[in-house]
Structures are given as structure tokens and as C-alpha cells.
Amino acid sequence: MAAVVEHPISPEVENSTMGSQLDALNQWVMDVARVTQPDRIQWCDGSDSEFAELVRGMEADGTLLPLNSETHPESWLHRSHPDDVARVEHLTFVCTSEREDAGPNNHWMSPADAHAKMDALFAGCMRGRTMYVIPYCMGPIDSPLARCGVEITDSPYVVANMRIMTRMGAAALARIEREGRFVKGLHSIGELDPERRFIMHFPEELTIQSYGSGYGGNALLGKKCHALRIASHQARSEGWLAEHMLILGVENPQGQTHYIAAAFPSACGKTNLAMLIPPEGYRNEGWKVWTVGDDICWMRPGPDGRLYAINPEAGFFGVAPGTSEKSNPNALATIQRNTIFTNVGLTDDGQPWWEGLDDRKPAFDWRGNAYDCNGPAAHPNARFTVSARQCPSWSPKAEDAQGVPISAIVFGGRRASLVPLVFEARDWKHGVLVGAAMGSETTAAATGAVGVMRRDPMAMKPFCGYNFADYFAHWLSFDKPGAQLPKIFHVNWFRKGEDGKFLWPGFGENLRVLEWMIERVEGRASATDTPIGALPKIGDIRLDGVALSDEARRVLFDFDRAGWQAEVDSLASFLDEFGTRVPVALKNEQARIAAELRNG
Ligand code: GDP
Ligand code: PGA
Ligand code: MN
Ligand code: MN
């Protein structure tokens, strides 16, 4: 900001009470105000009265529509600008001083060019608006793994969502003042013009600048921008991992709980798996699943060598379409009250509605037009924002400052063909390659074509704040003496049959696969070794009572050698895109598997 022409500042802003004991923070807030020229500054304390006041304002100007207060108390619908409905990967940049440090996996701009571009966009952009200052903490407020930031925004919708998604307000500010260090995030909705929209990350400056979008992943800066892109960069230098993973606990009938972290690309089943309800037979036996997180996982080695994980978020920003009493009853129970819905349809009695919920017909589509039954009523990336504490399966351990010990890491994506239901990596190094090799069909969570296969290593393609080659090396570095690393698995809930329908029932039935993983961790379940890893045979996974077609039984557990040869060959060219920076150990691992596939 320093190079920018300083504008005179309105007396009201000049005299606004500084909310902080930290000079560096006050200074930054005033620097931003000089550039953006807001009419008012409001330091957010996270209180109920502050939230109520914000909501009143948004109801008055139509930003939030109150929903039916009998069926959905304290809940609202927000209709976004129709061009502002998803993350914008083509407008998202990592601005490191060296281009190579961002890697071919990121769009790059030099910090100087990016600052010049953003300063021009931000100049005077908050005239007539209130500038909100949001101190927030990612992770339990007393956790050594948690990190803080401050987001400045001119959007009350962002403030309301940040209050749900993070520990926001006075306690976070106190921690920031104690630590003296925080990630600086500056956001303005600007004109919501896709031509004037950029999401910029300056990992070396612990700074984020986002302009022109109000959509969650672009605008709630604690989430993807801080907790993944900036945090992954910090985690590399500090020896931990910031990952696009859900965290869940599986409690067996003996009362023992294993924690599992799983990375699937956006809209590929994280929230659903995190809130899984066991099939009836398992419930009767006493199995329980506990939700710790549904999108982001920060983990680091503990004193016993195991990886300990926290969920840096305090809420869920979940995909609405497909959420139903049948697919995800926990999510449905969670969003009955105190929820902000974005871009869903609306019934004639003011209830939120989306495809897959039930067979009612909504009266309005997500744009607010009378619903004419052409196309979906809810946008395919319609979302709900809700506090995690409302989730019936919310784990008491989710607030634990030390985090939960991870027994298994799972990678997975949408793969219509080739990839079996589940397999296990032979060791950590192989597991890192399995993660690096991940591929998935694109979804509506980002703008662009849907259903196109692309490589998405560890589901971090849109989120890794540095060069993937260095990221793979960082993953490999956890394998050292004294480490008690989790086993690594790969799953595919999305294999399709010849009729184009999913072969695996998914959702609650996925527990059967998790049970097998846990038994593998405990050394009890059997599997068959193949070049791609250990595969269960049909009898190794409990399938009592699951209706599976003959085709499903044959295909879901099958290892297609010829198909995998092509897959693993194409992996070699993918790794080559990262040049000589790719760890030799990873290339050797690819070569080992390719050779085994040829020689077997
Ligand atoms: P996230 O964005 O990774 O958290 O994904 P969600 O859990 O929100 O799921 C995205 C979409 O995939 C929703 O429409 C879900 O209904 C669907 N989905 C989730 N899990 C499964 C599954 O096990 N099988 C199938 N067929 N669909 C699933
Ligand atoms: P998702 O989160 O992974 O639950 O879709 C939002 C996103 O990744 O954009
Ligand atoms: Mn996500
Ligand atoms: Mn999700």
C-alpha cells in the first residue's frame, strides 16, 4: 500500500475509535482507509448484537431475505450476482518474488505488478460504504496449531459469514495483540464485475487481496486464501501440513475411535463423508461417526510421532444440491436454523429448496425468477453457511487444542472408470505418489467446464500456495526416524457402470470401506497386493445387505492392468511438467510401479 497516493481521510474515519492495542494493526487499518476511502470504520467484536445489527441492515437493503421462521428460524437467503457464484481459479494468483516458487500449478504475477493492479482497484472503492475490520482465529482459540488473521471488507454478508466460519471478534483480537503477528486480508466486493476481479496472495508478506467477488471461496479470506494458500506456504517452512481435507472420527462398538483425514476435490464428497450416518446394521452394533471438520485440516507431528490434526474452521460452507434426509441427514438437521443459504431456490411458503432435497416444486429459482421447471432451481454450487456446533455428529474433540491423532489419510476423486473403490498404498512414499497422481472430474465449485478430468494432486490444485514439486518434497519429508505416520488409502465413490449410473451406493455405505481401512491399520483385514497397492477382495469388505449389481461386484474391486499402465505412464509426463524440482524419490516410485505393471 505504501506507494499509493494518500487521499485525505474523512473526519469521521479519522476519529473512529481504534479497536486495537497493536500499533501495527491500527496503522494498517488506517493505511487501507486512506486508499479505500470508506465513510465509516467498524471494528467487529463478534457479539450477538453486532450480528443482529448487520442482519437488520441486510434485510433492509435486500441482501438477505428472511426464510420461513417456523420451519427455518433465524435463517436467510442471499442471492448473489449471477456472475459471482463460484471460485475463479483463472483470476487467482500467487505472487511470490520468484516465479518458480509459485510453480506451474499457480497463476503468478510479480508482487510489484500485483500490488499496482490491486491498489488501482482498491482506490476509493469503499466510498459511501462501511469498512469492517474482522479479527479472526483459524482453529480453537487456545490451540498452538491455530493462526490468526484480520480481514478488512466492505461486505456485511462477508462479516456475517466470517462470524459463522471462524472464531471471530474479541478473543481473536486479544490473541493477535499477544502474538503481534497476523495475516492481512483486504477484500472489497467492488463492482462485482468479472472483468475487475482478482484474488491475490502474497505469501512472503502474509497478505491477501481480493477484489470484485462476494463468493465464499473468493471473499471469506480465512478459508481458502488463508487456511490453505497462505497456510500451506507457512506450513512448509514450519514443518506442518495445511490440507484440503475433512477430518472424522470412527468409533467402533468397543468405544475406540480412529480419526481419518480425507482429501477430495471441491464437490466430491468431503462434507458428506465427514457427517456420515452408519448404515442401520452398523448403528445397531454401536458404530458412531464424529465430525471434526469438512473442508480443511492442519496437522503436525506430535511428541509421539503421530500426526495431530485440527479443523481451522468453526462452520460449514457446504454444497446444498444433493443434500437430503436420505443422503446427509446430519447436514439437514444442522441447517434447520441459524443458517445463511446462498443461491438456493425458494418455495411459495418461504422455505429454501434445491435439487435432490425432496419432490416439492419451488416457486422461485436462485435468481429470484418464478421457477419455470427449465434447468435447476438452485445453482449447482448453491451453499449453506452454518455453525459446526449445530451438527448432531459434531465431535467434542473438535475443540481440542492439541488436535486429534490421525490413523489414516484418504485421497479420492470423481473417476467414472478405471479406479477401484479402494486401495491402500504400500508405504508413505507410495502414498505421496498416490496423492500426487490424484485426478478428478471438474465440478461447479469453480467457474469453467464441469466433468472434465484433470490432475488435482491431494485435491490442492486450486489451493497449494507454492510449487507442487516443493510440496511433494515437503510431504515426503515427514517420513523420518521416530515418525508414526498414518496409512494412506485411495477411494473412488464415483465409478460408473455401462448405463452411466454410479455403481457404489456411497454416502452411509462408505463406512464399510472405512471399516476395512481401520482393520488394515490394526493389522486385521486382508487384501491382495498389486502394483498399484493393496486391494480388498469382495469378501474382505463387509457387504451384507448392500444391493450391488453383478457388474458392480466385478468392477469395483478389479485391477485393470492395461488401463493402469496408461494411467501411470501419463503420471510420468505430469511429474515432468514440474521439471528437475520434482523429488527424485517420487520419480523413482513412479518408475518402480510402471516396471511392476509391465513385468507382472
Ligand atoms: P465437498 O464439496 O467435497 O464437501 O462435497 P459434498 O459432500 O458437498 O458433496 C458434493 C456432491 O457430491 C453432493 O451433491 C453430494 O450429494 C455428492 N456426494 C457426496 N458423497 C457421495 C457419495 O458417496 N456418492 C455419490 N454418488 N455422491 C456423493
Ligand atoms: P468444498 O468447499 O470443498 O466443500 O466444495 C468449497 C471449495 O472448495 O470451493
Ligand atoms: Mn473445499
Ligand atoms: Mn464441503
Automatic annotation (TrEMBL):
Biological process per Gene Ontology, one example term? oxaloacetate metabolic process
Task: Identify the metabolic or biological route this protein is part of.
Answer: Carbohydrate biosynthesis; gluconeogenesis
Q: Which PROSITE patterns match?
A: PEPCK_GTP (PS00505)
Top-level class of the enzyme under EC nomenclature: lyase
Where in the sequence is the active site? C268
What the record notes about the co-factor is: Binds 1 Mn(2+) ion per subunit.
Q: What is its EC number?
A: 4.1.1.32
Under Pfam families, the record lists: PEPCK_GTP, PEPCK_N
Superkingdom is: Bacteria
GO terms, molecular function: GTP binding; kinase activity; manganese ion binding; phosphoenolpyruvate carboxykinase (GTP) activity
**Keyword annotations of the record:** Cytoplasm, Decarboxylase, Gluconeogenesis, GTP-binding, Kinase, Lyase, Manganese, Metal-binding, Nucleotide-binding, Pyruvate, Transferase
Tell me where it resides: Cytoplasm
| Positions of substrate binding | R87, Y215, G216, G217, S266, N381, A382, R383
Q: Where does the Phosphoenolpyruvate carboxykinase GTP-utilising N-terminal domain lie?
A: 27-236
**Membrane spanning residue stretches:** none
Which residue intervals define the domain Phosphoenolpyruvate carboxykinase C-terminal P-loop in the entry?
Answer: 240-593
Q: Quick one: which residues bind Mn(2+)?
A: K224, H244, D295
Family designation: Belongs to the phosphoenolpyruvate carboxykinase [GTP] family.
Purpose = Catalyzes the conversion of oxaloacetate (OAA) to phosphoenolpyruvate (PEP), the rate-limiting step in the metabolic pathway that produces glucose from lactate and other precursors derived from the citric acid cycle.
NCBIfam families reported for this sequence: PRK04210.1
Tell me the protein's name.
Phosphoenolpyruvate carboxykinase [GTP]
Species assigned in the record:
Lysobacter dokdonensis DS-58
The primary gene name is pckG
